[in-house]
Every structure is written in structure tokens, then in C-alpha cells.
Queue: 2 jobs
Job 1
Amino acid sequence: DIQMTQSPSTLSASVGDRVTITCRASQSINSWLAWYQQKPGKAPKLLIYKASSLETGVPSRFSGSGSGTEFTLTISSLQPDDFATYYCLQYRTHSRTFGQGTKVEVK
Amino acid sequence: EVQLVESGGGLVQPGGSLRLSCAASGFTFTRNWMSWVRQAPGKGLEWVANIQGDGSEKNYVDSVRGRFTISRDNAKNSLYLQMNSLRVEDTAVYYCTRDWGGTEKTFDYWGLGTLVTVSS
């Protein structure tokens, strides 16, 4: 099975900061990686798919990059609505795997 | 509009069984793999199982293989998860989600989730 290692587990930041979250796969997943945002008590929301494609309706301050085993989610200028937990997901294989999550909290 | 509505959660004793259902609408159900994803209280997301559009292929996370069975009824646009031999560690919110459908996306729509509590 493919393992996904996400870092950091917690990130303290301020409004306006540039934020970067990393996900590493245990083997190549090409570009079959997605990023999700989850707020407490809510279902996750798709932000990025195929490593770098922005989901419809998602603000352009979110971007994704990477391929193979190293991937990054970047928020160019953190907004109040962005404080949440973020997860990566590999879908290279039909047995899906999530990263452990990164909580973005107020500094 | 795509909608996924889960039902069937509740309180069950260890060793017991429960069947979750997910009613899908707003898209061509048979074209999509479908998945169940769970989240234990205060923990991260865990993919549980998925099933191909025609039901011919199924995959499971190791921790539930042999205890849980995923199925679908395409005539009813419904997805199911039969959970047997439940353990305390199966306590979680269970989400139904739209998996691969031939595009480059996955898990693009989610239900609101149904809570399963395994406790004596």
C-alpha cells in the first residue's frame, strides 16, 4: 500500500501569511494527488486535484504543485476563512490513502 | 445538483452489526466508483472501501477487510456498507463520497456523514 506522509501536523500563521503544506508518497503516484480542506463538524471540500488543478469555485490563492513523490499545497495569502485542517489524498491506486492532516491555526 | 445522503448510523455494542446506506442523486451513478471514508472523533480521515460502478471490483483498507462489505444497487442509486464484528475503534463519522468517474477528480462530492458509535 502507498503511504502518505504530510507535514507539518500543525501550522501557526497569521492572516496574510504565505502557507506551505507538504505531502510525500512512499512511491511514485505520478500526479494523482488531491488536497482537501475540512472545518470542524463539516465534510471535507475538494480544493486541488491532479496535483495542480484548481477545483471550480476555489479561490486562486490556493495552488498545488509536485509530481512523483513530493507535493505541496500553497496558500499565497492566508485569509480568515482558511483556518482549517488540510488533507492530501493519493488516488494512484484504487486503495486510496490520506495524509495525516495539517491543522492551520491562528498564530 | 449532486447529493449524497447517508443513513443507518447509531449506537451498537462491540461484536454487533450495522448497515449504512447512501442515497445518491444528481449524477449518473453507474459511471462512478463510490467510496466510504470515516473519521474517528478528533482524528484524521481514513478511506474505508470503494466499489466500481458496475460492482465488479471492491477494495478495502486492511483494518476492515473480512468484517465490512461494500455494495451498491444501481437501480436505486444507492451505496451500502455492511459492518459486522464491530470494534470500539470503528467508532467514527462515516462519509459517502463520489470516487473516480473517468475525469481527473476524485472525492469531489461528500455526504454530511453518519455517526457510528461502538460501545458497551
Job 2
Amino acid sequence: DAKTTQPPSMDCAEGRAANLPCNHSTISGNEYVYWYRQIHSQGPQYIIHGLKNNETNEMASLIITEDRKSSTLILPHATLRDTAVYYCIVRALNDYKLSFGAGTTVTVRA
Amino acid sequence: AAGVIQSPRHLIKEKRETATLKCYPIPRHDTVYWYQQGPGQDPQFLISFYEKMQSDKGSIPDRFSAQQFSDYHSELNMSSLELGDSALYFCASSLVGGRETQYFGPGTRLLVL
């Protein structure tokens, strides 16, 4: 059973911010929200993760709602190289595996 | 920074043959994970090892086995290959027995003819 729900696809204009939503309404208190992306059959690339506070790194920002039932990944200035499948994954620290669901195919257009 | 190394990158085998995939984790990482991604599918977890012991197991066929060695590298052995085993196989590694972020290698593309 899927723990996360993401839109199947979205387009974004180059240079604009891309906001990727994710619903995880059954998330438990000890589960983190992870974001990975996969660019055309390459190995999944780690982007960011968080528990309940908003997080930012050099790649993206992660906004988690106060009730933790949803989150948004923000790519501040999308480039053509950001075209990829983006996966939102809920994972507990004592859970070794990452369970990839159906992610969002993001296409950045010039 | 050093990344996860996988070899070979591409492999072609015949049905019923055997294949061995290798994974060299990021230095100091003690946990390795194997994932399989079939054509048009999302990655699926196969198995993981922490400090040379199996730590978790997913939908890995009985024809597949894996182990982690003393230098932390891991090998995935696949026997009696079937056409449906054609897929990308990714290895990932992390620190501290899975509590930390997993970083993925570039993958091995296996084609079974």
C-alpha cells in the first residue's frame, strides 16, 4: 500500500520555481520524508529529507505542513537538467529500505 | 567526493546463465542495499546488509543471493537467469546501519537474451 501520493507529471518553465507536492496522510511520528530524483535511468539521486521542520540545502527546499500530512519540494530556479522523475518517500529510521512509489515526472521547458 | 561504484555497468547473459554484480560502497559506509528496476518501473528493494549481516529482505527471488564482505563491498549473485531479470540493478550505501541517507550508484544494466 502506497504511503505517498504524488501527481504523475508536471511541467515547469526554465528559471522558474518548481513546487512538487506530496501527500503522506498516514505518516507516523518516527517517519521522515525523503526526496530523491532519477534522471533518465541514472541512479536515484538524494535531494533532501526532513522530519517536521522545513529544510533547505543547495539543491532544494522542503516544506512540511504542521500536521505532517503533506509536503512540498521546491526547486528554486529550475533548469533543463532538473528534468527527472521525483520520488517522495516516507521512511522510518529503523527501516532499511526505501519504498519507491509512482513519482512525479517533471519536465522543465525552455 | 567518492561515490558508490558498481561493476560491470552493462552485462549481457543468456537464459539459465549466472551473473554476478559487484558494489563498492562509499568509503566508511557500512550498509549496502540492492534495488531492481524493470523497464518502465520504479526501483524495488531487494536486500540489504549491515556489517556483513543481512539486515532486511524484499522481493528477492530465491535464485538470487547476496553477501557483504569484510571490506564492505557487496556482490549480488543471480542464477538460472530468466528474461524477466532484465533490468537495472542499483546498489546504494549508507552509514550507521541504515539510519543515515542512502546514496546510489550508477547501476548495472543486465540484459538476458
